[in-house]
Amino acid sequence: MATKLPSPPRVGMVSLGCPKNLVDSERILTQLRADGYQMSPDYAGADVVLVNTCGFLDSAKEESLEAIGEAIAENGRVIVTGCMGKEAETIRARFPQVLAVTGAHQYEQVVEAVHAAAPASLSPYIDLIPDAGLKLTPRHYSYLKISEGCNHRCSFCIIPSLRGDLVSRRPDAILREAEKLVAAGTKELLVISQDTSAYGLDLRHASWPLKSGGEVRAHMTDLARELGRIAPWVRLHYVYPYPHVDNVIPLMAEGLVLPYLDIPFQHAAPSVLKRMKRPGNDAKVLSRIHAWRDICPDIAIRSTFVVGFPGETEADFQYLLDWLDEAQLDRVGAFRFEPVEGAAANLLPDHVPEELKEERYQRIMAKTAAISAAKLAAKIGRTFDVIIDAVDDEGGATGRSYADAPEIDGEVFLRDAGHVTVGDIVPVAIEDADEHDLYGVPVGA
Ligand code: SF4
């Protein structure tokens, strides 16, 4: 039976007041889009309506109250944010049915209120951020979406039919958003899209002038370089191994972009890749990985694989295991093939029985855990920068190195870290390792 996809909740937005308020509205909507919400252009189609108010003058306050009243009359499920949040009592007295009231710049609180009012269920089949991303993104890292849609037609995927062909955002708009995020406290930008390496193809890789002078081309390499100048850490996700990807490796060696590549290979056996209709399906990928490591020896490569794809034979699966031995990927996620409603792969012959999928899943997880453990053990005794995600009351802290994207990769557990705060990037001496995580102490502690 095909897996049914959840439909995303829809949010309506009424934004009043000055350009600063508009920027806040954009930031809230960007976060909600990343969290799996869709926008509704009208009251009727919205599961919840956000009113971003202005309270600068009495006339603006009255306009805000009228807008809240209209949203309640038209939809009924309303969250109020913005400058009038300071007057929560007035709002609640007049509109007791308002679901939540938050103040200006309280992004986290307003997004949290939307999550409570209309919970989003992310789907691993269409959403880019991990399920755990439903937890609010803390200020020190942010997802930055650079395009929507995809030109490929992988047989297990329904994204092109849902989201259409690739539409890239203008590079100047992306850089402006990145600057705003960094000004608001972001230290790490996680670049996402369905196919980051295809960025700008639809714009014919045209150039845009920059406010600061010069220009930027709508191309992954140029965008990565500019982002590297804006944010301390830039992490690239969903990159396909096209030849031009080789050009971002020197940026990693220079320290402009984290030496981390998330490449969803999905399989290695040529016949399976062919049936999957995967892009970048190139027999020379292994030699390219070796060449990348020659330029940037510490590069961490993360990937995902599907086991039990229709027609996958034992020989295909063994090919994949042998390929992994050779590729020595740092981080691997595996999935058992599931037919998603509407995917072309569902019609392929020779579906793999569930018990066999499970057995192959266990085998690939054991293989990749052993590779990961060996690679992490080799880091003991070295020092790496770690971004702090959490601190505890007992002098411990949890963070991530360049090789760890939030939620999907490992963590670095620190002792004697009472002096660090969330969002700091600190050098850490690695003392121990296990299959997925590292243990260490801040240098000089
Ligand atoms: S590259 Fe393939 S799997 Fe990825 S979004 Fe496009 S069609 Fe789907």
UniProtKB/TrEMBL annotation:
Pfam families referenced in this protein's UniProt entry, alphabetically: Radical_SAM, TRAM_2, UPF0004
InterPro entries given in the database record: Elp3/MiaA/NifB-like_rSAM (IPR006638), Methylthiotransferase (IPR005839), Methylthiotransferase_CS (IPR020612), Methylthiotransferase_N (IPR013848), Methylthiotransferase_N_sf (IPR038135), NA-bd_OB-fold (IPR012340), Ribosomal_uS12_MeSTrfase_RimO (IPR005840), rSAM (IPR007197)
Enzyme class: transferase
All residue ranges annotated as the TRAM domain in the record: 377-444
Function: Catalyzes the methylthiolation of an aspartic acid residue of ribosomal protein uS12.
SUPFAM superfamilies membership: Radical SAM enzymes
Record field: catalytic activity: L-aspartate(89)-[ribosomal protein uS12]-hydrogen + (sulfur carrier)-SH + AH2 + 2 S-adenosyl-L-methionine = 3-methylsulfanyl-L-aspartate(89)-[ribosomal protein uS12]-hydrogen + (sulfur carrier)-H + 5'-deoxyadenosine + L-methionine + A + S-adenosyl-L-homocysteine + 2 H(+)
Single GO MF descriptor: protein methylthiotransferase activity
Main localization of the protein described in the UniProt heading: cytoplasm
Stated name of the protein: Ribosomal protein uS12 methylthiotransferase RimO
Organism of derivation: Sphingomonas mollis
